[in-house]
Amino acid sequence: MTQPVLSVRDLEVEFVTRRATLRAINGVSFDIAKGEVLGVVGESGAGKSVTGLAVIGLIDPPGRISGGEIQLSGTRIDHLPPEQIRRIRGKRIGMIFQDPLTSLNPLYRIGDQIVETIRTHTSLSESAARRRAIDLLAEVGIPAPEKRIDGYPHEFSGGMRQRVVIALAICAEPELIIADEPTTALDVSVQAQIIALIKRLGRDHGTAVMLVTHDMGVIAETCDRVAVMYSGRIAEIGPVQEVVRNPLHPYAKGLMGAIPTLAGDDKRLVQIPGAMPRLSAIPPGCPFNPRCALAFDRCRVERPEPIRQGTQSVACHLFEPAKETAA
Amino acid sequence: MSEAVVPHPGEDGAQPSRANAGWFRRALDSDIFHSFRRSKLTMLAALITLLFFLIAIFASWLAVQNPFDPSQLQLLNSRIPPLWTADGQSPFLLGTDEQGRDVLSGILYGLRISLAVGVLGVVFSGLLGIGLGLVAGYFGGPVDSVIMRIADVQLTFPAILIALLVNGVAKSLLGNRLDEWSMLGVLVLAIGLSFWVQYARTVRGSVMVEKSKDYVAAAQLIGLPAPKIMLRHVLPNTTGPILVIATINLALAIITEATLSFLGSGMPDTMPSLGTLIRIGNNYLFAGEWWIVAFPGVALAGLILSINLLGDWLRDALNPKLR
Amino acid sequence: MLAFTLRRAVQAIGVMLAVGVIAFAMFRFAGDPVNQMVSIDTSAAERASIRQSLGLDDPVLVQFGRYFINALQFKFGVSYQFRLPVSSLLAERMPATLELAICATLFAMVCGILMGVYSALRRDTVLARLFQAVSLIGISLPTFLIGILLIYLFAVTLGWLPSFGRGEVVKLGWWSTGLLTISGLKALIMPSITLGLFQMTLIMRLVRAEMLEVLRTDYIRFARARGLTTRAIHFGHALKNTLVPVITVAGLQFGSVIAFSIITETVFQWPGMGLLFVQAVQNVDIPIMAAYLLMVSLIFVTINLVVDVLYTVVDPRLRATVGRAS
Known about the structure:
The complex is a heterotrimer of chains A (327), B (323) and C (326).
Chain A: E1 6-16, E2 21-32, E3 37-41, H1 48-56, E4 63-72, E5 75-76, H2 82-88, E6 93-96, H3 100-103, H4 110-121, H5 126-139, H6 145-148, H7 158-170, E7 176-180, H8 188-205, E8 208-212, H9 216-222, E9 225-230, E10 233-239, H10 240-245, H11 250-257, H12 297-301, E11 307-309, E12 312-314
Parallel strand pairs in A: 3-8, 3-9, 6-7, 7-8
Antiparallel strand pairs in A: 1-2, 1-4, 4-5, 9-10, 10-12, 11-12
Chain B: H1 23-29, H2 31-38, H3 40-57, H4 59-62, H5 103-139, H6 141-156, H7 159-174, H8 180-194, H9 197-211, H10 214-221, H11 226-262, H12 274-282, H13 291-318
Helix pairs in contact in B: 2-13, 3-5, 3-13, 5-6, 5-8, 5-9, 5-11, 5-12, 5-13, 7-8, 9-11, 10-11, 11-12, 11-13, 12-13
Chain C: H1 2-29, H2 33-37, H3 44-54, H4 60-72, H5 86-121, H6 126-140, H7 143-157, E1 170-172, E2 175-177, H8 182-215, H9 218-225, H10 230-267, H11 273-282, H12 286-314, H13 316-325
Antiparallel strand pairs in C: 1-2
Helix pairs in contact in C: 1-12, 5-6, 5-8, 5-10, 6-8, 7-8, 7-10, 8-10, 10-11, 10-12, 11-12, 12-13
Subcellular location (chain C): Cell membrane
Pfam families (chain C): BPD_transp_1 (PF00528), BPD_transp_1_N (PF19300)
Transmembrane segments (chain C): 12-30, 98-121, 133-154, 174-198, 243-268, 288-314
């Protein structure tokens, strides 16, 4: 196998507050290959967005990466000094945020914002950067880009703004795009277009994409592989068809059960009882155990490690091969 | 405005449930009390403010003379420097002024005048503002627009200008009948008329919010007096913000009074406030008699600083959004 | 845009009319103009004829109309103290006040913005904390105390700067300026600082709060995710977004600066409109008080109008909403 674009190993992120140190990410590992789209799903607060921010080096104090390793095309990037990680952001890793309405500076023309970004990362001249900006706007599907380039953000609709944001994320041809809930704030009709655009760009440029969302529909439609996160850990990761059709982890099962399907209308949507624990009150053992119908004694004391099951990997004691553990 | 109204209930619930704790325990455990205890500076400010009030109340027991009583002043004792300097004389700890007035006694009595004008001015402006705010909010329509337009216009003018104008007009109308006590009244009036707008806006906003709620319509439907019921909701809701405004305005009112007196349009020399004392002392600064102006100045600055610190803390504690 | 400007202009005229009514009421009812103009031994008949000649027997509305028309031509009557037309007194004093107010505002804005930006970006440094402390003291110290303190330090003790007056002034037409002579500039330093200090703390606190707010916004986070340099983010994006509201406030504050100059002018015996006004209040010189009120209101209202219109020019979002509304 060729080297993955992004490789995350045992990532830990902590937030130090006056009361306690909260661990938002606890031992997360995954890879994304060139041209691959990895979906990251989970409830709010599961650590999806924090993982994305950690990769791009935007965890603000009091948060910090407290363990593990992040490699971009084989180079370790999690411990780089701020100036070097800054040069990677926007150039080698592009980021798309949730709300296009607030992602653009309202006082600057969108062209100026794109040109500024291009010129930060390349040695293009002002006019060359402007020509490139027009090309980019055309590529992300903005009509009459040579005119719209001088518009202010408020003159664009939400979907169009998200296209501008995407243009900004890809303007230095990054190896990796992190899209943090890129469609959540958009109208349903526009969501599909934006997802299609991200998918197309990933395919055309061979860019790896990390797509953070809580929308299983988007995942099923877009991603090659999917990681299900719960309480700062990856509960299950694997090819999207497998995970959707045959989820192994009880939490993933619940999550898939929560997708409405057009066909099976005799079944009621399955709900997972309870709510995800707060960071300050994660139970010992498997964090899902209080809500898990299949939990047994071991789940309450010992934290499950990821176990390979075919193409999938699942962190659940149910799949432990029968052997004695030292703990 | 309404989100600023209710004190922040408690922190994020990481602590065990406090359902059984009594009201008093809850109060001790609340954010307000917590942040108060945490901030040493605030506690110090509260202590100093309290001290100032106590000093003002007990001025006549603490002072070595009554500086308002001309018969107690002796020109022989004029311009004595503070006690710790070479020429200091007992009992004039902080020295004396031109008329032989003990500076410390002057400060003690002046503090009393400054605080009285400040507190009365704040109470007056508060009552005026709350009243007008209730009226504007409840009646709405033209009454509301007239009151709020006046408020808008007035808000663009600095309070000191309004206070000076009220003062000048009062002087013109009352002429020679203006003695010390009526001057005090004029100052309270001037300050009250300068600072009512913020209260009115806050209360009006809260009334507008309450008015649209269902219980008001319900109350009217079953024949209960809606205004009375609304008042019972509006006043508790606005207590927090009004307290903050009043605290910050107390500092402003004291500054305004001191400024008017300093400009010669406030308390007369025969019944000086801190501002008057500073004006008098300012004339002797060039002669090197710094103590006549310095000590009243320090007292005034200390008083205002402590009240402002309290006000700042109160505002932050009652409005978590601003933190 | 035009409709918006017009609407604001109509509002401004409404405010001026209201202030005009107050000024007239003061002029007419707070103190008898005749009593102020005559001596004790003037006979009743003479008084009556003066009343007649001043038109004080006409209906109130007629009198208000006359006052209003005169005020439009900057005729505010005659000062009781100086026996001179109020308008010429004001015109003579205005340059001093405006020069002081402009210098104070410049001082406040330059220092306030620098200190505010610094304390927002370097929040936990000693200097930032010092600025915060200074700002609290600046808000708590009454203007006149600051003036007295400065005089004691720099005029009485050190003897570096003059303690009162404008120094030498140069006449440029009817405008007298202290900006062209060394002594004039020296005389301007302490009053400008005294007058500007309060605004400076205000601007500093505002800049700090706004900047912290802006730094938390999504577009700043996105700018960081785009890999822009810290410098470009702080001084390109954040500062520009911070300064829009700050400049509005600072502009609106210019009117307050003129009004607050009353205090500074008294402390430094600065021969401006404020000093004239304070003397008028002390001596119950109602025509000057009324005229000062009108002049300051006019300045206020004009600034408000200009700032409102300018604001829409600076902020493209507002330009759009205003354009849609009109």
